[in-house]
Design goal:
It contains eight helices and ten strands. It is of the alpha/beta class and 221 residues long. The protein has one domain: TIM Barrel (Alpha-Beta Barrel), CATH 3.20.20.70. The strands form two sheets. Strands 1-2-3-4-5-6-7-8 form an eight-stranded parallel beta barrel, surrounded by six helices. Helix 5 runs parallel beside helix 6. The termini are close together.
């Protein structure tokens, strides 16, 4: 590969965790707001306290389960993040509303890879956003799963999306130091993203983070 695959460290819960992730080379941080299920949500007040402490050049992504553009816009303004990770599907035209209201704010749309139909979904939404993030949730489940499942999905579908998408692709879903090399070789993503694979008892673990970063650098060489 021509450059090292970037890393987004998700489920950041404190300024100390943000500083650790940045120190070890994270290019982006995920700050999880209220979700119907899954790990990592923190109060918006905590997100607003963490975001301004992150150095320029590192993207702060607010993970939101909201689908109403006005609610998402209000959330971004309260939290002061530099990007929004849209964890659920939006209605047609919603991304354009977000663009108009939040110029300069990066939009990352999550595609939950459930099968071949995810390729068409990705193709449809890609022109509206800055990046796609491929995850292993189940947005149609009785209780929506919008991330943080710790499950690996079908990387052949992810590779097809990556090859078809006109925007950068983040790969998430069950990644850790042991499998990220294989994932990078299979998908060739712009970035990889993880939460549970580097945490112990809900806390960001430095040893696991360092091992993950080393595995990414080796796979990208």
């Amino acid at each position: 590969m021509s450059s090292i695959t970037r890393v987004k460290v998700c489920c950041i819960a404190s300024v100390a965790e943000a500083q650790l992730a940045v120190q070890e080379g994270a290019a982006a941080l995920g700050l999880v707001s209220a979700m119907p299920s899954g790990p990592g949500p923190i109060d918006e007040a905590d997100i607003a306290a963490i975001a301004p402490r992150v150095p320029p050049g590192v993207t702060t992504l607010l993970l939101t389960s909201r689908t109403d553009p006005d609610a998402i816009i209000d959330q971004q303004r309260r939290c002061g993040v530099s990007g929004i990770q849209l964890c659920d599907r939006l209605e047609s035209g919603a991304h354009r509303e977000l663009r108009r209201a939040m110029p300069g704010i990066r939009l990352v749309q999550v595609i939950h890879v459930t099968g071949q139909e995810s390729i068409d979904e990705a193709r449809s939404v890609a022109p509206e956003v800055d990046a796609l993030l491929l995850d292993s949730g189940r947005p149609d489940a009785p209780v929506k799963e919008l991330g943080g499942t710790g499950r690996v999905h079908d990387w052949t579908v992810s590779r097809a999306i990556r090859d078809a998408a006109p925007v950068p692709v983040f790969l998430a879903g069950g990644l850790n130091a042991e499998n990220v090399g294989e994932a990078i070789a299979a998908v060739r993503p712009y970035a990889v993203d993880l939460c549970t694979g580097i945490r112990i008892d809900g806390q960001l673990d430095k040893a696991r983070l360092v091992a993950f970063m080393l595995a990414v650098r080796r796979a990208s060489a």
